[in-house]
Amino acid sequence: MSPRLRRIGERWLPWTLAWLLLAFLFVPVLVVVPVALTAKDYLSLPTTGISFQHFASLADWRAGWLPSILTSLGIALGSSIVATGVSAAFAIGAWVYAGRWPSTLRIILLSPLIVPPIIYAVGMVRLWSKLSLLDSWLGVTIVHVILAMPLAVLAIGASLSNLDPRLVQAARSLGARPPTVFGRVILPNILPGTIAGAILAFIVSWDEITVTLFITSRRLVTLPRKIWTSIADAVDPALAAIATVMLVITIICLLLRMTVWERLAQRRS
Amino acid sequence: MAFLDIRTLRKAYGSAIALDGVDLSINEGEFVTLLGPSGSGKTTLLMSIAGFTRPDSGTILLDGADITGVDPEDRNFGLVFQGYALFPHLSVANNIAFPLRVRKWDKARIAARVDEVMKLVGLDKLAARKPRELSGGQQQRVAIGRALAFGPKILLLDEPLSALDRKLRDAMQRELKRLHQETGVTFVFVTHDQEEAYAMSDRIAVFQNGNIVQIGGPREIYRAPASRFVAGFLGGNNILSAQADGAQLDLFGIRMPMPAAYDRMRHGDGAITVWVRPEDITLGDVAPGAVSFSVTVADVSFVGTSERVTVITTDGQELSVLAPSAAARELTPGSTATCALLPSVIGFLARE
Ligand SMILES: Nc1ncnc2c1ncn2[C@@H]1O[C@H](COP(=O)(O)OP(=O)(O)OP(=O)(O)O)[C@@H](O)[C@H]1O
Ligand SMILES: [Mg+2]
Which of A4, A13, A19, A157 has the most CB atoms lying inside 10 A of its own CB? Predict the structure, then answer.
């Protein structure tokens, strides 16, 4: 093989393949951007002109997008905070009192990961109708907490597994009472895992659709549910607009994570 | 009344008895080592003193006050673990400052004390480092400094040196001894390494199956092991059977005058048990006054400063001999040789 061919093989081929793969993953996502700018009122590419009317309808309260965004935001924030708190308490307890009970409990806690959501949904409908929690904030938030806990427990448990359980004994022998042990020793060491767990829990709730569809009807419309119904009724380009907004927010978050966070981490060490 | 008084402490884990009625009195400023084989209850006793293990029964008195039920954080005892258990997110200085912050000392006082402690344990250049950026020996110093910083009444150490290499271990032994002398704090040290125990302790408590079977100074324990177990555990002594009849001792079929250490009331007569140290038996040359006997060589292994030779006596007892390499060079397994020992090196065990 000539050196030139080999150079192409070694250098350019992997690059090209890598970029093609990335394009395959990302281009379908990018398609929503031009569609959001269409001037027509059905899903289409903007062939006859660009318009921001669909973005405007997002901000219009009566179109229903804004209320559903706020509903989803509220439920996601609430369930993320609760799920993270409960998961942290469980994970730390299991870490301190290692034994048979915590590992059995752990399997039960992780079961939402294993049970298909649709089956879970059927069960929840029956239970929630008995408890009159159908179509309520509390009902949806509780379900999202349950669905998010496995991921939060795993994330927090992972950061705890790198921590020596005898740190608790060390701290106590140095005179620290349990709240101080928690605040000064455990929490600082599991903060990254806890933040990751909280973000995962937020995301689980933010785009949960299966169970939510079953346990809500008219009163409580989350964003995924709103998207779902608007696809089913008429294909409204506002869909593409909301997708674009979420895409932009995601990219901003990623950029922040890459720049600001790295700089903070550097300063700390 | 002793400073720390441990009275008939018992602790069982299911059917495993970790402490079987342990009594131990420790004086203020003493360096006491708990020595014993794995699983003999040393850690359980240390953790009971620290307050992390609740004994099933028995009491622990500090200066006459019952502290058996006091929480570990209120005992004011320093604790050093085998794995150090340093706080990974805190610098060396902040690790040492931790017990002082918890006690709400004011800033200037903390800074002064941290400086003082870091000088004491030889870490003054490493204040800003994180534990993961330190060597094992340095981490060990931080752990000790942290446990001493708040002026504990007692420092408890559970095999703190077992993860270090030999050379560092020797250095840390001297360091611990110096710290003990400079601070005057009472040290309770756990190990299963007898040389470590000899090198540092004022007194050694030997553990067997949850009991203290002998307690005394290093030389005393070395010279006069109280039981077959202690004699065998310390220094790999040879435990041998012999015959005693009044004025004569019969060992390996050799009759010799009874050594002065023998006491018929304590050691019994007829079939008795004696011990001899491997380094007290010579191979080849026979010193004046020594008795000699012929043996068959079973194994020769090089142990660094000398050779460990395993031989079988004519009456079938196995004997371990520590001999200079020059004397052992010619020996091969299966050959015969002459061993000798002075009657005065024979130790007698009490009737059991
Ligand atoms: N948490 C526990 N649960 C069950 N059994 C235990 C527990 N801790 C200790 N034991 C048992 O109690 C006995 C004494 O253990 P301990 O840890 O005190 O021994 P040790 O002398 O410190 O041994 P080592 O030199 O191996 O550290 C052992 O038989 C051990 O198996
Ligand atoms: Mg132990």
Answer: A157
